[in-house]
Amino acid sequence: MNEKSPMLLLGIGGAGSAVARGVNRAFGEGLRFATADTDASTGQDDIPFYLLGGDRLSGRGAGGDIVTARLATEDSIAVIDESLEGVRLAVIVTCLGGGTGCGATLETVRHLKTRGIPSVVFATTPFTFEGETRQQNARGVMSLIEEEASATFFIPLDKLVADADVMEDAMRRAVDTLASGVTLFWRLVEKPGYIKLDTERIRHLVSRAGRARFATVTVQGPNRAPDAVDALTRAPLLAEGSGEVRAILCGVLAGEDLRLSEIGKIADGIRTAFGDQCVFDLATVNDEQTFSGRLSVVVMLFEATGKDESSGKTGSAITPKKQRKARNPLAQGPQGRGRFNNSEPTVWNGEDLDVPTFIRRNINLDF
Ligand SMILES: Nc1nc2c(ncn2[C@@H]2O[C@H](COP(=O)(O)OP(=O)(O)OP(=O)(O)O)[C@@H](O)[C@H]2O)c(=O)[nH]1
Ligand SMILES: [Mg+2]
Fold it and tell me: What is the DSSP string of 79-123?
């Protein structure tokens, strides 16, 4: 466990914690890592575990109820503070569908935001065969999580396991794929190659990044760079975004045989395929032990969202109401009384005449 890393991996809920443990194992070198759940049985030796909703739920879990999980987490969220010392970026792994994965993730991300810690959320959405209730649970919190988090990867389990047949294989594949995306940030920082990204640069990149997609591919052989680009352009996890791509983060992970021409081919191919006008960040990881002879490419596509870029605050989505208010410089103060705010109102026929007519009548002036 690397207690000093400025990045924390946090698994939330039963499946979220299990997947996060798998990601930690796949990384193999000890991430700064913790799990949290309303169910005490999720806790395991040698991994810090935070029991959410202690007094309210006594470690029994939320039983699929998002509201219970939210309230329980709200009450007890301060328990995670001891794990936040020096944390500059939180990476959350959760599986939406049950109560805790949905409700506790929302409250945790909200709490992190109040502590000034941006969060990147990797959240799976339920298999179609799990039925409508779990799908609805997931859909109900997605946009709320999106408002609080800096970046969100919603990954349908149906797509994540692709064509796996046996359940065991499917889950292993899900964890492997998630691990390649989730651990990219640590790999970039801890095993930098020719082109480096540090935690602050990553933090800046993901701040206000919005909804995102990622995919990864590992290739070898003489044509590995074009092969990687080709596979990524066809990757189901990168298809069907809900918005325009605003920024691309491309990680090239390889051993000591990585050639400059390969980096060039990958950069050109990814930009051509996913957006040559948007912000593009490419960094390399040099890890001979893990990638010897092989080349792995992780692509993250961050979509344009309605987040307020101008305020510099994370996660403040512009609602139509806020937009109207921002556009209407006269609609100020709680009652719209402007400079008459502190004077005795001139009331006639039940209407305060110091408030301009267009505000009293709720007429929107489109300046
Ligand atoms: N990848 C993966 N996903 C799983 C697994 N088991 C369940 N899921 C997914 O995780 C979602 C949430 O289930 P749980 O983790 O059991 O629920 P929870 O977040 O603990 O919520 P409560 O138990 O209701 O408090 C499910 O709807 C599934 O989509 C698993 O072993 N691996
Ligand atoms: Mg559970």
Answer: GGGGG-TT-SEEEEEEEBTBHHHHHHHHHHHHHHHHTT--EEEEE
For atom 3 of ligand 1, which residue has the closest CA?
A: 15
Whether the CA torsion 316, 319, 322, 326 is positive or negative: it is positive
Q: ∠ at Cα 168 (164, 173), nearest 5°?
A: 55
Assign residue 333 a region: left if phi > 0, alpha if psi is -120 to 50, beta otherwise? left
Tell me, in angstroms, the distance from the centre of ligand 2 to residue 62's CA. 7
Encoded tokens for 103: 């409700």
Q: Which ligand is nearest to the CA of 103?
A: 1
Domains and CATH numbers, the chain: 1-182 (3.40.50.1440), 212-318 (3.30.1330.20), 320-360 (no CATH)
Query: In degrees to the nearest 10, what's the CA dihedral of 52, 53, 54, 57?
Result: -130
Of 3-7, 89-93, 327-331, highest mean pLDDT? 89-93
Determine whether the shortest distance from the Cβ of 130 to ligand 1 is under 6 A: yes
- Ligand closest to the CA atom of residue 73: 1
Q: Is the CB of 13 under 6 A from ligand 1?
A: yes
157 lines ligand 1 (CB under 6 A): yes
362 Cα to the center of ligand 2, angstroms:
47
pTM metric for this prediction = 0.83
Would you place residue 327 in the very low, low, confident or very high pLDDT band (cuts 50, 70, 90)? very low
Q: Provide the token pair at 349.
A: 């026929």
The closest ligand to the CA of 99 turns out to be: 1
- Which neighbouring-strand residues pair with 216? 298
The residue whose CA has the least distance to atom 5 of ligand 1 is: 15
Taking 60 as the threshold, does the pLDDT of residue 186 lie above it? yes
